[in-house]
Specification:
The chain is built from nine helices and nine strands. The longest helix is centred in the last third of the chain and has 18 residues, at about 245-265. The strands form two sheets. The protein has a six-stranded mixed β-sheet with strand order 2-3-1-4-5-6, sandwiched between helices. The protein has two domains: about 5-165, 3-Layer(aba) Sandwich (Rossmann fold), CATH 3.40.50.300; about 185-290, GMP Synthetase, Chain A, domain 3. A hairpin with a 3-residue loop joins strand 7 (about 210-220) and strand 8 (about 220-230). The protein is globular, with a radius of gyration of 20 Å. By secondary structure, the protein is of the alpha/beta class.
């Protein structure tokens, strides 16, 4: 039997639903999802195995014009997604007209690999608008196959998945057949806590935060976790903790519930808040948190 395997890389502007799509394909909640832009900071791999194929999906940060070092590093993850793609998914949403970076857009138009352009969130549109959007994108990206989808409602997702499998090159698997992702457990602890901070705090606070899991101890019954929430300023530390610690307690409770679902066992979590001044513009700190190559 011939075996297929390849890297399927998902790119697009922020908030187009890339993480929702990848989670739908993988069947697990690997990428965090919120309504805020720049939720995804890293390049996250999700691995789907069939009897005769392995699809290595890659969710990248939304394409933006970088304003500080962290965002430049996030865009470096997008660049690598062009380099190793066997199939490229360019995801847009209804009403969108262009990508926020012209160089990336030209790379899509001149890609040497198959391009699937997915028009997402069609449940928020009508037939006339969808037809106009489809025509717009056919003219802008003539090398792409176009699929209208609703990742949230699972509309047309299976059809896209089947087409990707058809397009995968013949290859042995890249990862063990029981692998789900390339990331360690601590990465998902960090991401779950960061998601709850994105959901519970406003303005700049969520974007000034980085999480570091200092301890992850697992036995048969329970996982014990110690995590540090890094902020850039003393004033942010106070906001994260909240009056009498109420805010951080709420985040801890929500994160613990999510982790117990994710890991399938009881979780005990301790969280601390530390100030790490201007970490988003510090190359050493960005390398330490995995945003830049060492």
């Amino acid at each position: 039997m011939t075996h297929k395997a390849g890297f399927v890389n998902i790119i697009g502007n922020p908030n187009v639903g890339k993480s929702t799509l990848m989670n739908a394909f993988v069947g697990e909640r690997l990428s965090i999802i919120t309504s805020k832009a720049q939720t995804t900071r890293h390049r996250i791999l999700g691995i789907v195995n069939g009897d005769d194929f392995q699809m290595v999906l890659s969710d990248t940060p939304g394409i933006i014009k970088p304003a500080y070092e962290l965002q430049s590093s996030m865009m470096d993850f997008v660049k690598t997604a062009f380099e190793d793609a066997d199939v490229l998914i360019y995801m847009v949403e209804i009403g969108e007209k262009e990508l926020k970076d012209e160089d990336f857009f030209r790379k899509i138009q001149h890609a040497k690999v198959p391009v699937l352009l997915l028009i997402n969130k069609i449940d928020k549109s009508n037939q006339e608008t969808l037809e106009a959007q489809t025509q717009h994108w056919k003219e802008k990206v003539p090398n792409a196959e176009i699929y209208p989808i609703s990742a949230l409602n699972n509309f047309n997702v299976q059809e896209v998945f089947n087409r990707i499998v058809e397009l995968l090159p013949d290859s042995p698997p890249y990862y063990p057949k029981d692998a789900l992702t390339d990331k360690p457990e601590r990465f998902f602890v960090n991401e779950i806590i960061r998601e709850k901070i994105l959901l519970n705090y406003q303005k700049e606070i969520p974007y000034s935060v980085e999480i570091e899991t200092e301890e992850f101890k697992e036995d048969d019954e329970i996982i014990r976790i110690k995590a540090v929430i890094m902020v850039e300023r003393d004033s942010q530390k106070g906001i994260i903790i909240g009056h009498k610690g109420e805010s951080i307690k709420k985040v801890g409770m929500q994160a613990r519930e999510e982790m117990e679902k994710f890991f399938g066992k009881q979780v005990h979590i301790e969280m601390f808040v530390k100030v790490n001044k201007d970490w988003r513009n510090n190359s050493y700190q960005l390398r330490r948190f995995g945003y830049q190559q060492k």
